[in-house]
Amino acid sequence: MEHLKAIIIGAGMGGLTTGIALQQAGYQVEIYDRVRELRPAGAAISLWSNGIKVLNRLGLGRAIAQVGGQMDYMSYYSATGERLTSFSLQPLMEQVGQRPYPVTRTELQQLLMAAIAPGSVKLGAKCVEVEQDDDSVTAIFEDGHRATGDVLIAADGTHSVLRNLVAGRGIARDYVGYVNWNGLVPMSDDLAPKTHWDMYVGHHQRASFMPVGGDRFYFFLDVPLPKGTVSSPDQYRQELTTAFQGWADPVQRLIQRLDPNTTTRVEIHDTQPLTSLVRGRVALLGDAAHSMAPDLGQGGCQALEDAWVLANYLKTTSLGVADALQRYELARRDRVANIVNLARKRSDVTHGKDPIATQNWYDELKQENGESIMGAIVKTILGGPLN
Ligand SMILES: Cc1cc2nc3c(=O)[nH]c(=O)nc-3n(C[C@H](O)[C@H](O)[C@H](O)COP(=O)(O)OP(=O)(O)OC[C@H]3O[C@@H](n4cnc5c(N)ncnc54)[C@H](O)[C@@H]3O)c2cc1C
């Protein structure tokens, strides 16, 4: 279809990537976000090869390679520092044809913003309602402003208000059962080798270092806790010191070096897979369509896949917007449902939902030579649209 106008709600990585793909397809794009200043929540993100391939396809390959971390090896250690397994990620890259890039969220956002036509993103615009008829769709904002187009993409994140409209019912977010602290620390050999993704696992907890650009590690620390456990930055170090007491030296150093004021602490939630991703001229995209546990590092990658698939159906078909969105739903629904479910399973095993299964996993890691871990990641990557 030609000459479409797209209204995108949400200027996160899903909304911005969709905006870029639609602008490159020749469409007029308006992106609205409720915040007055775009500041991504969380420190960094690992973009696996399926997500990077979408960026490559949009001409952003060189830009992401410049800010991404060089992650060449993966290692698991026990809580006390015994090496369980360590292997090169080269076979994975050869199988899928693209290396993954861990990247800071700020740099990813800057890169996407630089690729959007100037003036396309409007801030301080909270969408509260959507109206549609046979010819158009209109977003209505809290201040009464209205924006009308041919298609509306709801990329309004995990707390999406538009998700309920598409689903026709209230969709609850479910607590996955653990709290995640994440942030950035300067790279240092006494934390982890600079091209390694190192993970310490034990007691249903996890501590991890991943290289990002600018000689920094993206770290995260997971602890199963009851929902609603109250904390504040001045308590983080003590909370983590207690939770990780007796863990290996790199984990202790990390807890001492992290800056609590720039560390994010988040209770991890997901949503049950949705049966509808579209309604008429409205399409859900990214976390609005599929909030998942971050245990596969796929939430953002799936948003990028969504963006590419949606833009393609709009561009390559001619039976109307609603028809193109149906095709998007058909292409994406099972793929994302499967990944939401896999991520929840991975989270349950890592965080001790069934302690015997978690102990079995710790034991399996001692036998692991990389094949089965990389095999699972490759399968997820190659299940994407640019395989
Ligand atoms: C701890 C953690 C680690 C993660 N690690 C990874 C990883 O390694 N790899 C990976 O691929 N994914 C990861 N993810 C998932 C990833 O962060 C998300 O999938 C991704 O950010 C979703 O992007 P989005 O654009 O859909 O939503 P968001 O980035 O949440 O953007 C939504 C935007 O919509 C705006 N908005 C909301 N409501 C309205 C409204 N009513 N009107 C206007 N604007 C609105 C918000 O202000 C926001 O800017 C992780 C998530 C967490 C929590």
Report what the structure shows.
This protein is an alpha/beta fold. It has one domain (5-173, 270-382): FAD/NAD(P)-binding domain, CATH 3.50.50. It has twelve helices and 18 strands. The strands form four sheets. A seven-stranded mixed sheet has the order 5-4-13-14-15-12-16, with helices on both faces. A hairpin with a 4-residue loop joins strand 4 (73-78) and strand 5 (83-88). The longest helix has 30 residues, at 321-350. The radius of gyration is 21 Å and the shape is globular. The model has no long low-confidence stretch (mean pLDDT 97). Flavin-adenine dinucleotide (FAD) is lined by residues 9-15, 32-35, 42, 45-47, 51, 125-127, 155-158, 161, 180, 182, 266, 286-288, 294, 297-301, 303.
Summary keywords:
alpha/beta; binds flavin-adenine dinucleotide; seven-stranded mixed sheet; 37% helix; FAD/NAD(P)-binding domain; 26% strand; 12 helices; 387 residues
Please summarize what this structure is.
The protein has 387 residues and is of the alpha/beta class. The chain is built from twelve helices and 18 strands. The protein has helices at residues 13-24, 49-57, 61-67, 90-96, 105-115, 162-167, 233-243, 249-257, 299-316, 321-350, 355-367, 371-382; strands at 5-9, 28-32, 44-47, 73-78, 83-88, 101-104, 121-122, 127-132, 137-141, 146-149, 151-154, 174-186, 196-202, 205-212, 216-224, 264-270, 278-279, 282-284.
